[in-house]
Amino acid sequence: MLSSLPPRERQIVDLLYENGASTVADICGALPDAVSGSAVRAMLKRLEDKGFVGREQSERGFVYLPRVSEKTARRSALSQIVRVFFNGSPVSAATALLGMQRRLEPHELDELEKLVAQAREESK
Predict the structure, then answer these.
(1) Alpha-carbon distance 16 to 71, whole Å?
(2) Which neighbouring-strand residues pair with 56?
(3) How many CB atoms lie within 10 A of CB 46?
């Protein structure tokens, strides 16, 4: 879904998730390199046409916001990461997460155990 977007369009959608409703000027200011307002407006129009972004009138002019729920976007991004970096294996991805340098807190481990038990129950 979001992974199908060109890199700059994806960057704009990511900024909208991160910063919430934003104007063209907000987006231009948040991008790491200079992009003209007209170029950002053109990309926002394409994103609107594709259904990824919506716009609303406000006292600041038009503000743009993501139309795809954050949960759906997260799931799409994670699915892409698992496919590309872990050969499609969620187990390999989970193993990598558990092997990260930061040690998990006991409550985090409890939450993971609960989620594994729930997934096991749902697969029956």
Answers:
(1) 14
(2) 63
(3) 15
